[in-house]
Design goal:
The chain is α/β, with parallel strands linked by helices. The chain folds into two domains: 117 residues, Rossmann fold (3-Layer(aba) Sandwich); 190 residues, Dihydrodipicolinate Reductase, domain 2 (2-Layer Sandwich), CATH 3.30.360. The protein is built from ten helices and 15 strands. The longest helix is centred in the C-terminal third of the chain and has 20 residues.
Length: 347
């Protein structure tokens, strides 16, 4: 492996472009890109600044000038491509969902073993999110009793097409939860330290909306609304962790601010504030007033993954184990929606 990590990206749509920017921000080089056809691969290589296109994802994984594989394809291709990369001994970043079935996700996580294999739960990398996590761990909120919020988008509203995500083998009847609901759950479990142990879910709109009520292993209750048909909501991921002494709130559409609820009202703590912990300051890379956004979080995620490849795994890096956790939660939402009953969620 060279000192500059050489990345191959399989899949050249929106998220493949995000990955390409993040590779360069992490000090890597995009050497190869594979799209759906050799011609599209060549076009994508030029667009993403790669050395060359690859005829297929398999050819890219096997290439000698690819050190780390980024899987950014439709969901049904995640397992075979990630498995091939792992078998080749190459670190892999695989988009979520890790697999379209719980069994496949569990098998893939097992096969990853001690290899560097990560899943882009990129919202973990906002400084305000890390600050919530640090304050909860320090006991600033006291015991948490209520975890709630929503993840609302509108790209499927007013008859907007679902594309491949609407196909039965890609997301189908539970696509909103599998696509964005798992982000909400990951963020809440990551910041609170709680695990969801029971839930009651209802899914509607052909899979475009789910509501979930849940209980956690630490005695809290909670709820979330997941929708991709909420007009006017572009990417509103909101969480609130309510404790006996404080409530911590975060909204991805206003990511520079942590709201701290207290008996005297809300305190807005802005990114870059001296009140932020060292854990949060590590991800605050621009001066206050210069907003950091989603791409910056993704850059931080890839930078931390590449640090792990070099032998220095930072705290909070989402791995295939976290991808498996997302699959466990999705399976529980499916079981509950279909049975119209509470179900247990394995830890």
């Amino acid at each position: 492996m060279t000192s500059t990590l050489r990345a191959g990206i399989v899949g050249a749509g929106f998220i493949g472009t995000v990955h390409a920017h993040a590779v360069r921000a992490a000090g890597g080089e995009v050497t190869r890109v594979a799209a759906s056809t050799p011609g599209r691969s060549a076009d994508a290589a030029a667009r993403l600044g790669a050395r060359a296109g690859a005829a297929t994802g398999e050819e890219l994984i096997d290439a000698d000038d690819v050190d780390v594989v980024h899987v950014c394809t439709p969901n049904s291709l995640h397992v075979p491509l990630a498995r091939r990369a792992l078998a080749a001994g190459k670190p892999v970043i695989c988009e979520k969902p890790l697999a379209t079935t719980l069994d496949d996700a569990r098998t893939l996580a097992d096969e990853a073993g001690s290899q560097v294999a990560t899943v882009p739960f990129a919202y973990r990398f906002y400084a305000a999110v890390r600050e919530i996590r640090a304050r909860v761990a320090d006991g600033g909120a006291g015991a948490l009793h209520l975890l709630h919020g929503a993840y609302l988008q509108d790209w499927q509203a007013a008859g907007g097409p679902a594309g491949w995500r609407g196909q039965a083998g890609e997301g189908g009847a539970y696509r909103a939860f599998a696509d964005i609901g798992v982000h909400w759950c990951d963020l809440v479990e990551f910041t609170s330290g709680h695990r969801i142990t029971r839930l009651l879910a209802a899914t509607a709109g052909g899979g475009t909306a789910s509501t979930v009520t849940f209980e956690t292993d630490a005695g809290a209750t909670g709820s979330t609304v997941i929708s991709q048909t909420s007009l006017g909501r572009r990417n509103s991921l909101r969480i609130s962790l309510d404790g006996e002494r404080a409530a911590y709130r975060f909204d991805q559409e206003d990511p520079e601010t942590l709201l701290v609820g207290g008996t005297d009202g809300d305190l807005a703590v802005h990114r870059g504030s001296p009140a932020f912990s060292a854990a949060a300051a590590r991800y605050s890379l621009l001066p206050p007033g210069h907003p950091q956004g989603y791409q910056g979080c993704f850059d931080a995620f890839v930078t931390d993954t590449y640090a792990a490849i070099r032998g220095d795994a930072p705290d909070g890096l989402p791995t295939f184990a976290d991808g498996l956790r997302a699959a466990v939660l999705t399976d529980a939402v499916i079981r509950s929606s279909e049975s119209e009953a509470w179900v247990d969620v394995p830890r």
